[in-house]
Structures are given as structure tokens and as C-alpha cells.
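Predict structure. Input: Phosphatase PAP2 family protein, 177 residues.
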Amino acid sequence: MRLLVLMTAMAGLLLTPVARANSDLETSGDVLHLLLPATAFGATLFHEEGDEGSWQLIKAAVSSRVVVEGLKWGIDKERPDGSGNDSFPSGHTSDSFMAATFINQRYGWEWGVPAYAVATYVGYTRVESDKHEIEDVLAGAAIGALAGWYFTTPYEGLTVVPIAGNGQYGLYVSGRF
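Output follows.
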């Protein structure tokens, strides 16, 4: 419950001035791109005991950003609006999906689904504001999600994940006992 209150308070504090100053789609994506990782980090500080979650988030964030910046430097792709040659992959989307995956992996789908909805919206704003093409956003989402998944373990309790592939279906169950 404290996590929900924290997320709501942070959203209210950060979005209210932006809504008054500029209702631009790109600005809303920029704000949410910062809010989602900030919420994840806040949850590790105020919801958890110890610093395990904070370190997992930091490792996921740094690894995701290093991959994104390396690809941006190595791939010279112009943005659709012509504002630069660093279109591939989308850093905003990578950061957002890294945070959403961290939230989902660490705290469960109840928090993960809204976080993924926010991350998807951030990706949408990047395409609609002509900063990226869809492949840039999809690559950023994949990089962020993989980093979040690789470095994050559940905070507490039992995690159940559906698995489907090669004609087989099942559940992956993990937890701390």
C-alpha cells in the first residue's frame, strides 16, 4: 500500500507543473521517462529493507544505458525530425522498459502491468513526436527489458511466470524460502 501512495504522490508532484506549462505529447513522455525509474528507485528505498533492490536497479540501469549509448555511437541513424544522428535505439524507451521490468520482476504483476503501460506510452510518444521510428523504440524496449530481467530478483514471496514455447506450456515458480 505504501508503494501505491508513493507512486501516486510522485506522479502528482511531477506531472502537475508539466500539465500546466505544456500539454505537449513529447513533454509528457519525457516526464514519465524520468518518473518510472524514480518510482522504482523510491520503492527500493522506502518499501524495502536493505539495499539489494537499489543495487539491482542500478546495475540494470547502467547496463541498459551502456548498451544504448554504444549502439547510438556505433550506428549513425538520423532521427525522423532531423535533429540528430542518434536515433537508434531509443534511450527513453530503454530506460522506461528497464524500470517497468524491474518493478514487475521485483514487486509482481500488480505493479508491473501499470508500469509496462507507462513504458509503452513513453515509446508511443517518441514515435509520435518524430524523435524515433518504431524499430528504434522496439530495440530500446528490448534492451531495457532484458537488462531489467537479468539483474532483478523478486523482493519477497512467490513469483509465478507462464512459459510457452516449442509446443510446450507451463509455469515457472520461484520464491525465497
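The first strand starts at residue 158 and ends at 165.
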